[in-house]
User: Fold these one by one.
Assistant:
Number 1:
Amino acid sequence: MGKIIVLRLGHRIVRDKRVTTHVILTARALGANETIISGERDDNLIMKLEKFIEKWGGEFKISFKEDWKKTIEEWRSKGGKIIHLTMYGINLPEIIDELRRVWSQNDIMVIVGSQKVPREVYELADYNIAITNQPHSEVAALAIFLDWLQQGRELTREFHKPRLKIIPQKHGKKVIKIESEIDINPRETEKQDRGR
Ligand code: SAM
């Protein structure tokens, strides 16, 4: 299988802080290898997310690229395929088999927008793909796309060298610190959540 990178277009520091964070957390949790942010430069957001990744493990790269067009063209020149998620595209169930074949042989770049996506993106993409032809959210679109592409395998993936690890519970919360193997009680765990 190829590498999966997510290009988040048109980030605006104030308006998109939360949604861009969710795009990146979703990309990481659901099997992508890397995210590139384009739009307004937001080093603070990248720094916070890098700290988060250090805590929860895995090798996931985040970077900022001012010139999204150059980024897409460079990706293509290295043989990568480009999949743009848009409600105007081909609905996912009609084309998922072809996309899985493409991914089995190529690295893929998955593009999601925020504000209005420039027309050129629709033309540069190898595939414009809809997760239903109804408007909704880049976070939902990305999550469903990644899940369908990987057929649910991403849900059981282990993350490399975490400092915190959740021990799944039917009731309550349990988190262990890997360095010390000390269990944290639920109250302390809530503090960790807020500190994220
Ligand atoms: N109005 C914008 C436009 O014309 O491109 C779209 C804004 S939408 C809130 C932000 C992003 O969510 C889109 O760029 C797209 O990546 C994603 N998105 C929203 N609905 C989608 C759908 N039905 N299928 C795939 N992606 C979708």
Number 2:
Amino acid sequence: MDMKADGKARKGKKRKGQRNMIWNETKECMSRDEKRVLQSARLVKTVDRVYHNVPFYRKRMQSIGIEPGDIRGIEDLSKLPFTTKADLRDNYPFGLFAVPQSEIVRIHASSGTTGKATVVGYTRRDLEIWSECVARALTMAGVTREDIIQVAYGYGLFTGGLGAHGGAEKLGATVVPMSTGNTKKLTTMMVDFGVTAIACTPSYLLHIAETLEENGEIDKIRLKAAVCGAEPWTENMRRQIEDRLHIHAHDIYGLSEVMGPGVACDCEFHQGLHVYDDHFLPEVIHPDTLEPLEDGETGELVFTTITKEGLPLLRYRTRDLTSITYETCQCGRTLPRISRFKGRSDDMLIIRGVNVFPSQIESALLEMGGTTPHYMMIVDRVNNLDTLEVQVEVEESVFSDEIRELERLTKKIAHVLQQAIGLAVKVKLVEPKSIERSMGKAVHVIDKRKLV
Ligand code: DLL
């Protein structure tokens, strides 16, 4: 394997060097064969690094009789072991990092089933590559340095806010770091600043549209593009957003473990999301047999990161269900495309872009006392915003208390749940034994959201 391929390819890119080509995807910089050489060199390097720097991977590779020398290129990808979210949790917080902590310059985290967060770490170079990927995605959505972009994903441990922010700054756009929470302020600034692009969850964008309509401001905005993701949405919803706001809306995908937003994005033809496979090698596998599937077949999306330094991952099982095609897109890009997501193979709910696991509710309820583990989460979409009601069975003794006592308890539970999941929750206390018991798997969620 030509270990110098990476360096050569990058030099090649530089030689082309026109300023306006910086954010073009690999199709314009190298042929498919050249890219394969680049991917292989990067994969070989990644495998070698994780084997020598991450005891977890060394053990896992040894357990299946694989050594770094067995991986000579991307044709050997399927010989590598899988990584799951459970592996990240078991090695909480920094156990899978491949560099000393002193080289980690940023931490992000997403909530997990056990209450422990899934922690991800980035080196300075990881952050640069992340910004580059997001900048590519924004470019795909038609955003340029002339635009004023509101980033209305949450800032903080969630990767949405800072991820989109980094990419927009890298592109040279004027960034307004709104975060979430104050829609009135957002719409006022959108009008006053002449904002031309927005990055937020699709459900939030619909809510923004509604607020603008209610306030008679819809004709005053200069918005032209939106880059939406972090939760599932349909083509219909995209069209509705486009029609109501008179903009182009694009789908951006990513997950914290692999990087954050910017792993893939759709172009103006909306025929699937282009994956930046010079950084993330995609595979689609059968979720039960774990065998790679044919192009076009729906299965679980798996990623191997090939440039990450802080937290490189081999064959990470995303749980997201999709299919892949390598056919050249109408836009001319040769990047592989994944179809819109068909759902997840696990039970995580995404409410207003925040990951929520039923077990988080359960453990918070059990910790506080006075309640039982019998609860029901009712997720809905009202005025285009996701809502969460949690019906909680209380103990008999508590239920016979005075109304004032019950109100106090309701408030307390709402506070505890909000602390646990980071989302406002409407709590309704219900009579003992009123929530249906299950003989098989307990059902804790009624998801009434219908994606239009
Ligand atoms: O949601 C990263 C992100 C932020 C992506 C902003 C796009 C925009 P996590 O919180 O780790 O990271 O959640 C990742 O969200 O495995 C999918 O199930 C879901 N998801 C993300 N983007 C999309 C999308 C961020 N465009 C999980 N369509 C992923 C459908 C999406 N689901």
